[in-house]
Design brief:
Elements (H helix, E strand, L loop, with lengths): L3 H4 L2 E7 L12 H4 L11 H14 L5 E7 L7 H11 L7 E7 L6 H10 L2 E5 L4 H7 L9 H14 L3 E8 L5 H10 L4 E6 L12 H23 L10 H9 L13 E4 L4 E3 L6 H4 L2 E2 L4 H15 L12 H4 L4 H7 L1 H20 L5 H7 L5
Parallel strand pairs: 1-2, 1-7, 2-3, 3-4, 4-5, 5-6
Antiparallel strand pairs: 7-8, 8-9
């Protein structure tokens, strides 16, 4: 955990080197919402150009975190290898890497790549085989759970990478079921979040499921309090940002840094404020454009998102929410606001618990209040 101010020394860039995927997950946010607009993968030549252009354009940031997304990033190994190889030619710490993967590409080149880049691996694994395989299958319908566990074992054996387990909570699979499962895998951290589902989707949460999810967030919050009080490293960081803003006495200007200190790059080199927003209406430019052009366009985009939406003007949570994720709100609308308001409420409870002794929070974050 780090303070919002400290985090601004870092830029985060989500790069989709391909929109192709070897799975056909029923609830896929990318496929379901038409984000895939191009089929050609990023070439190794362009991948190297991307690193050089980012170094130039984001020179005002000390560190640049590259998060590989897609599609399944590991289906385009040549571009990934080019990115890591180019990054290693810069001073240590200039570029760091993370990757969101379905964990089904078992190739020694993958594990050599992950180790070379010292990746943080965000591994999608919903639950035990019956839960996971119900929605996460290959194109021909084959189950993938056993393969993902094999991938996790290989990451542990062949690399020193940190692994975050990621589970999608949906109808029939609750938050308080997903978290113990992820803990059982021995991962370094985990996240389990409600499915991003358009209205009417059969895998979406019913009203009863939603209420259970909200109740479960309170249970998760109590576990977080126990971990903080015991000075144990947090494995679930969903409440981190709103707790930190309370600790620092600051207001959350926006939900994220999209356009300001966070960007997305498509396989063709288009620059977006976030890889998950609609490229047709949110394009900032091309990575090969003069750097100042898309950086300035990003700042303009960010400033337009700091204006309150009508729905936010009377919301009790806006000071710690920042208006919500633009990409998710476009799909989930009010449901996402309900979840976010509850997370803010729980974050307030966490902070209130330590109001008379904030040392555990300070120790955990490593920040200075002087």
């Amino acid at each position: 955990m780090g303070s919002p101010e400290v985090q601004h020394r870092r830029a985060e860039v989500l790069i989709a080197t391909t929109w192709a995927c070897n799975l056909r997950c029923t609830y896929c946010f990318v496929q379901e919402n038409g984000i895939v607009a191009e089929s050609r993968p990023m070439s190794p030549v362009l991948a190297r150009q991307v690193l050089d252009r980012l170094d130039q354009a984001l020179a005002h940031f000390e560190h640049i975190d590259i998060h590989l997304y897609g599609g399944e990033p590991l289906t385009n190994l040549p571009a990934l290898e080019a990115l890591v190889d180019r990054a290693l030619q810069y001073p240590p710490g200039r570029f760091t890497f993370s990757i969101t993967t379905n964990g089904t590409v078992l190739d020694q080149r993958v594990f050599d790549l992950l180790e070379a880049g010292r990746f943080e691996v965000i591994l999608s694994i919903d639950g035990p085989a019956p839960v996971h395989d119900a929605y996460r299958r290959t194109r021909d319908g084959s189950p993938t759970h056993a393969r993902v566990l094999e991938f996790l074992g290989a990451v542990r054996k062949h690399t020193r990478c940190r692994v975050q387990g990621s589970s999608v909570v949906r109808s029939g699979w609750g938050l308080v079921e997903a978290i113990p499962y992820l803990r059982s895998l021995g991962v370094d951290s985990f996240k389990a979040q409600a499915v991003r589902a358009p209205e009417g989707a059969d895998y979406g949460l019913s009203q009863a499921d939603m209420q259970t999810y909200l109740d479960d967030l309170e249970i998760v919050g109590r576990h977080v309090i126990e971990d903080i009080a015991a000075r144990r490293p947090l494995k679930d960081n969903r409440f981190t940002t709103p707790v930190l803003h309370q600790l620092l006495g600051t207001r959350r200007e926006s939900f994220c840094g999209a356009g300001k200190y966070s960007f997305g790059i498509t396989p063709s080199g288009e620059v977006l404020p976030c890889i998950l927003v609609d490229a047709a209406t949110n394009r900032l430019g091309d990575i090969r454009d003069p750097a100042h052009a898309w950086v300035e366009a990003g700042r303009d985009w960010w400033e337009t998102r700091t204006t309150l939406r009508d729905e936010c003007s009377d919301c009790r949570s806006h000071d710690l929410c920042g208006g919500g994720c633009p990409a998710i709100l476009a799909v989930c609308a009010e449901d996402q606001c309900v979840f976010t308001r509850k997370e803010v409420d729980v974050a307030r409870d966490i902070y209130a618990h330590f109001a008379n002794d904030i040392d555990p929070l300070i120790d955990l974050t490593g920040i200075s209040l002087e």
